[in-house]
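Our platform keeps sequence and structure together, in a single record for each protein. Such a record has a labelled line for the sequence and another for the backbone structure tokens. This encoding replaces a full spatial description with a residue-level series of whole-number codes. Below, we set out a record of this kind in full and without editing:
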Amino acid sequence: MNMHLYPKLAWHGIIKNKKTYVPFLLTSIGLVMMFYIVSYLTYNKSVKQMRGGDDMQMILSWGVPVVAFFVVIFLFYMNSFLMRRRKTEFGLYNILGMGKGNIARVLLWQNLMLFAVSIVGGLGMGILLSKLAELCAAKMLSNQASLAFVIEPSAVRNTLFLTVLSFVLILLYSLGQIHVAKPIELLHGEKTGEKPPKARWILALLGMLLLGTAYYLALTTKDPIQALLVLFIAIVLVIIASYLLFICGSVALCKLLQKNKKYYYKLNHFVSVSSMSYRMKRNGASLASICILSTGVLVMISSSLCLRIGEDASLHTRYPRDLEVGVFTKDYDQSVAAASYMEQQVDAVLQASHQTRKNELAYNSLNFAALRQGGDISVKPYTEVSGTQLVMLNFVTLDTYEKITGTTETLGENEVLLCMFRGTFSGDALNIDDQFQFHIKKQVPDFLEGGDNAIATYPTMYLVVPDGETMKQLYEYQYSVYGEEMASSYQTWLGFDLDCNADTQMELEKQLEQQFADNAQTHQEYFYEVESLEMQRYSFYSLFGGLLYLGILLSVVFLFGTVLIMYYKQISEGYEDAARFEILQKVGMTRKEIKKSINSQILTVFAAPLLASGVHLCFAFPLLRKLLLMFGLSNTPLLVGVTGGSYLVFAVLYAVVYKATSRSYYQLVK
């Protein structure tokens, strides 16, 4: 046989089926491009040299395996549809005398052509747009990007490896399909439909149970630390439940509708329900995939965009002053002396720079973790602390409280003032392991701004005790429980604002660190910490900007998958329904009635994933809100607005894609 025949047959097969191969090539080019861009940003030295670039590259590195996984999955999905469309052609070749080995050569040439276009187009577009992606990353980090245009070798290598691996696996799978199929099966492969599945009530009920469990976990999880673990469990449960409900539950629903004679025996309902029931096993899997991908897009975009929008508020909540200095000691009397020592070092640096403290906040405190059940507090080793009961106790003396608030209070023996942060407390008694019995004189408003407690993932109890002696007793008790390594220290804090620019603030932070380091030998019992708002700003920008960038990139990949599934689903159903609706016309249905039935079926099918993803998003909202607390974002109205806006925008895009892909369906069945 002429060796030039195989590439010709492969090329003509692509040209004659361009309606299905062009979307495959466009999508594969887009996926290869996205993978190159993610890899480029992860390994590029220019990004690494940006302020905050290390953090962004670390976050983007999480997305490399995720994008790679979905590239392989989506390419496999597209190839399965292409193989279904080409089986008739291969069956004809087989009957006309070509053996399966000859067909395998045609497939080999075809895959080589698709691979060549995908890798050249994808890498070319990726390299072309990589500089734009780098500029966008620099903008998110508030940096200036290098103007040099480079091709990242590591990104090229990874992209080539992934693309080769994907097409090799696709080829092996396709050859396996041809090898095990009989000629008559190949000839009728395109027309082979799914058998009407039975209503699997047990699996449908199991899907409802799993979905209910996931929703229950999302609504009842109170602790943000546990929310991260619960989120992964809930994601797995929702994915399994979605597939069970869309595949088995939808069949069961069709069976129920068929039993409703008033609904079922209407012309448009009869055709659409019968058609959905006949092919629901395959349809259900596609719809579940669309639902899960849509939910993923909405969760990533809404949460990452909310973090990006609220990053300045989170930054100022975490760092309420321009500069913060903390000294930690193991003795109460030393903590009092540390306050004077700290102010001396700060004044020495500020005077040398001709700067003055403004809006300062200074206080001594003691805090340690414990377990809480109602009004009973139990101090235990950290290994025994349960996340659902964890509480942070933060003690300050009455003198400190009055200095901060400018008020005057009186406390008797064993009396305290209480301020609850991210939690509630009822009652007027507090018992700590029967060692301390406090009477709560009253609850007071927040009096300490932001700081570490702003990003606390658990409730904090601020307790104002009468004097330093009570603080000493509390320190000694927690020290006896936790031991030398885990016991908390006394904390002396000084925060203040400055009337200078960002560069000066960062320089002052470095000078303060050096000042404390120079005196470390004479004050070995002191442990110090210096932080500036401006130095931390780039950490926030890199973290939130990196998360947003990763969210956008993954959302684009998921959108590729959503559009792809919707398009190929419309095409495949169009081919299958064309003959069916032709028969319906012959038995008396008008074109208007057929079109009405088509509209009813398609609208029902494609509205379901969008509605289901909206429900998933609503139940995921409490978990998202708790997870965002870990990033210092407590602005719930912002999260509600961004999440709702993201869903509305996505719904519009979804409708546009549905309208565009439905044209292909109508063209096939008209």
